[in-house]
Amino acid sequence: MPKSPDTPRDPRPLAAESQGKPTAPAAGSTLGTARTARQLTACDTTGFTGKSGAALVQQVESAGLDCVNTLFTLTGNDAKGAFDEAQMVTVANALRDTAAGYPGDNSTSAGQLVLFLRAGYYVQWNNADAVGPYGTGLRSAIRGALDAFFAAPHSKDVTEANGATLAEAVTLIDSARENARYTGVVKRLLGDYTGGWTGSMAAAVGNTATVIERGFELPEFTAALQADPSFATTMASFVTRNSAQLTGSDPVTRIGIQIGNLVASDGLRAQGRPIVKDLVNRYPLVGATGPLTMNLLWFAENKDAGNCSYYGTCDVPAKLVPLVLTSDHTCNPNLRIRSQSMTARQNTDTCTSLVNQDAFFHRVVKDNGPVADDRNTALEVVVFDDYYNYSLYAWEMYHIAVDNGGMYEEGNPAAPGNQARFIAHQADWLRPGFQIWNLNHEYTHYLDGRYDMYGDFEAGMTTPTIWWVEGLAEYVSYGYRGVHYDDAVTQAGKGTYPLSALFDSTYDNADSTRVYNWGYLAVRYMLQSHPQDVDALLAEYRAGDWNGARTLLKTTIGTRYDADFATWLKACAADNCGTPPTDQAPLCTAADTRQYDKNCRRDGVAATTGDYGYSFLYLPAGVRQLTITTSGGTGNADLYYNGPTWATTSSYQAKSTNPGNGETLTISNPPSGWVYFSLHAQQGFGGVTVTTTYS
Fold first, then answer.
1. Helix, strand, or coil here: 363?
2. Is 64 left (phi over 0), alpha (psi -120 to 50) or beta?
3. Which of 381, 447, 455 is nearest to 411 (CA)?
4. For residue 500, is pLDDT > 70?
């Protein structure tokens, strides 16, 4: 399945992203005095890097929390000077002594000592060569410090004052990788927690999620949970008691997701199975509880595979479709949109965009219809509200990877009843504007697979074809929308790859820049400079002769065009990439410059900002399809069509409003008689070519 370029990520946790990835200790404090929206207070780090023993302890205790918080950024010699193992042992022993009389607030500077130790572990993790290793001396000292703190009666106070230090101490458990030793502390916090805990006390409980999640990376943590099955039931009880708090980005969800790690462990699977089964079936798959249930389902299906009957989840993919995709819109018999929440106008505009893209695509590839044995006559476009919902649900609904910006499923185009499907999401980071991320890119994959590539997607991957598959998708997406491809032009200036090397690109040997930016450059160059070779190549692709296509690229063409490609790249980097050859229609002959005919064009069309260029043509009875295109010139002209009456921005049946002047409208079964369209000057335009064709 072709992949889309990546997309910005949602910060909420996803189970699939945390497995098998050792992560660093948590970074700086966000609690207590150190929790502030302003920039951290300036702090002289030499007071920490040049002292040891009692002087270092005094320096830490007398510093403000904001000052200690800046130590998380130390590197090099400063990191060594502050956090050598001997310094860490000294401060750990000081925390042990202070904890013996911990009063439940920070009057004895326990918070500074805890935060310093957290900073040391963080800095050493990221600068191990500079700081040096931590050994048994520090392990013994940190255990003494944490034992003393958590044994102190006031460490159990449910107060904001205690919570500020307690939250940091909970995180220190993980920083020191003592997760297994303090499972009892975690269990106590989860068991004692109520909805009345707010502020730093709630944060302290929330921080146990890190202790649990990273604990599963440690064999001794798993062993501790094997020896104490009540830990698993305590986690489950914590979730069910506090399920009213579930929103997807709350501590209950985050901690509840970690229950899934139980079924990921051979030694804990027996404990985890009934708990995961209960939670997945207890809470709805969508809404506030969806992030919890779907992440736990991910663990059940990926870490305890083949047991959907036990979990009662075999029918979940089919159940999810109507639950998640509540909007169902049919553009035409060949195109359907299923989405979470698209409006009627968004559906209509999306249909128009895709239908009009057809004409642009066919002008580029000059096909003669679908390839043999292709029955993918209809495409289903699936649109999630945002990337998070895409990643949360699409993996289960359609069994696809979701570490991308969208996916096209071609299936077996020769199989009767096969459903081609583009699975996408809205670009929520562009709101309040509406955009389906990679919409035109992925639709090109559908068209390319149907009209250019014989067989299914895997057949087309038997030889390297990615330069064409992804390059064409980028070329059509940017060209059809009239959007300047800034990233590709920037890459052209670097001259990184010869053309012959790009013919060898695969998903495995190329990064996203080579796949998408350089694929676009290669396809654009070949379409403009060697269209006959493209025609010959597509003849091989359409016949499924992958070896013949490979011979054409690597032997017949080989390195012959590398030098010219390098010259073209330099011109393209200067924003002179040229234009592809086009088969222009003849000029219209009617005396009225507003009138068009069956297959004709008018050049030099212009209008000032806010004005219209009104046009019309006469259609005989029986016209099945009318296509109106605009191209070239300066400014920004938007195209509107309104059937038997004048077209304006407030009265229209269809529109194409891309940036620039590259607009296309394809009208199916238009009425006979005079029909009207217009170009509205979003920005004053001139030199535009307008073409009308119908069949």
1. helix
2. beta
3. 455
4. yes
Question: b vs e for 627-647, b when ≥16 Cβ sit within 10 Å of the residue's Cβ?
Answer: bbbbbbbebbbbbbbbbeeeb
Residue 636 has pLDDT above 70, yes or no: yes
134-160 confidence digits (pLDDT tens):
999 999 999 999 999 999 999 999 999
Residue 75 carries which side chain, given as an amino acid letter?
A: T
| Residue 344: CA count within 13 A, CB half-sphere | 0
- Under a CB-based contact definition with an 8 Å cutoff, are residues 531 and 444 in contact? no
More confident position, 229 or 18:
229
Closest CA to 338 of 352, 323, 316: 323
* Distance set, CA 547 to CA 331, 457, 501, 554 (Å): 38, 16, 17, 10
Of the candidates 416, 408, 396, the residue with the CA atom closest to the CA atom of residue 443: 408
Place of tokens 């945002």: 386
Q: Tell me, what amino acid is at 318?
A: A
Q: Pick 168 or 584 by higher pLDDT.
A: 168
Q: What's the Rg (C-alpha) of the chain?
A: 32
Model pLDDT, residue 32? 46
Q: Which conformational region is residue 592 in: left (phi greater than 0), alpha (psi within -120 to 50 degrees), or beta?
A: beta
Gap between the Cα atoms of 216 and 22, Å rounded: 10
Q: Count the neighbouring beta carbons within 10 Å of the beta carbon of residue 550.
A: 18
User: For residue 432, is the peptide bond before it cis, meaning its omega torsion is within 30 degrees of 0?
Assistant: yes
Cα separations in angstroms, 148 against 37, 54, 233, 524, 605: 33, 20, 27, 68, 83
Tokens of 532: 């006959």
- Which residues, in sequence order, are bridge partners of residue 655? 640
Signed CA dihedral, 542, 543, 547, 551: sign only: negative
Closest by Cα among 542, 512, 363, 535 to 452: 542
Q: Report the candidate in 133, 27, 110, 113 with the shortest Cα–Cα distance to residue 72.
A: 27
Q: Which of 308-317, 394-403, 654-663 has the lowest mean pLDDT?
A: 654-663
Q: Residues 403-419: pLDDT tens digits?
A: 888 888 999 999 998 99
Q: Burial level of 253, CB count in 10 A (0-12/13-18/19+)?
A: buried
Sign of CA dihedral 675, 681, 682, 685: positive
pTM of the predicted structure, to 2 decimals: 0.74
d(CA 412, CA 457): 8
Sign (positive or negative) of CA dihedral 544, 546, 548, 552: positive
